[in-house]
Each structure stands twice: as C-alpha cells, then as structure tokens.
Fold this sequence. Notes:
Elements: H1 3-17, H2 27-45, H3 48-52, E1 55-63, E2 73-77, H4 78-90, E3 98-107, E4 110-120, E5 127-139, E6 142-150, H5 152-159
Parallel strand pairs: 1-6
Antiparallel strand pairs: 1-2, 3-4, 4-5, 5-6
Helix pairs in contact: 1-2
Amino acid sequence: MNKITLLFALLYLSSFANAQSKEVMDDEDLRTKRVVETFLEQLGNKDPEKIASCFAENIDWYIFESPKFPWTGRRTKRSDVAVVFKTLFSYFVENKDKFLLDSFIIDGNEAAIFAQLGRRFKNSDKDFLMYIAIHFKVENGKISKFYLYEQTPILEKAYE
Length: 160
C-alpha cells in the first residue's frame, strides 16, 4: 500500500472516530470531510493548480513566517495558493515525503489535522520530521481558512 493510499485510509477511519463526540456525522461534517480529503489528494499529487482549486477566491491563510522560506506568511487570494505550492515543492527532493496522521477532527464546517510531516531539502540533502497541525474552515465547498502550524526551527536547521 503506497503512502497516499494509506493516508486516505487513515483519514477515512479517523474522521469517523474523532467527530467531536458525535454519534453520526451530519451533512455539513461530510461536506467538510470531502473538501479536506480532496485538498490532501491534490497535495499528494503535487499539482499546484488543482490544490489551488480547493480554495475559495478570498482566503484567510497563515503559515508561521520564516525569512528563509517564501511559502510562509499570510495570503488572502486563491491566486496565491498555486505560487506557494510551486515554490514549496521546488525546495524538496521528490518522493522523500512522509506523512503520519495522528488525528483528523471534523466539527461542522471546520476540520483539524494533527500529523507528522517529513521531507528532504534539495540544497542541504538533510531530512526532517516535525509535528504539524492544520486548521481548515470550509464554506460553499471551498477552503476559506487554512492555518498551518509547523515547527519552523526544525525546518530552518535542516535547511542550513
């Protein structure tokens, strides 16, 4: 089973187990789950344009800012998303990604993912593994809020 298939199997199973003490997911939970899964699928495919298509035109986007990494910081437009991911993907060695899901929580139109993420930088040939959390808000079938919390010092050390 490849990593992407395993990721989606885990997401599917954990979303039902972690639905904020709800016995059954309601329609809004299911819509949110589908949008986040589509985003993760496109992220796994590394297609920046399709990733961007998962987002609303106006977004509330934040990745903890680092002067070393141009993909960090605030964004407000869908048109920024493809550029961010093109840039981000250009920094890392292909096929060296790791994604270990800890939790996938859905509550109405909001979702959160807690995971470990690993990659290898091209410039330093160093690997890293760090904990991340992503907070999503979904409106009208698109991601309107995306906050990625990552361990930036781990990234900066591996980049040097």
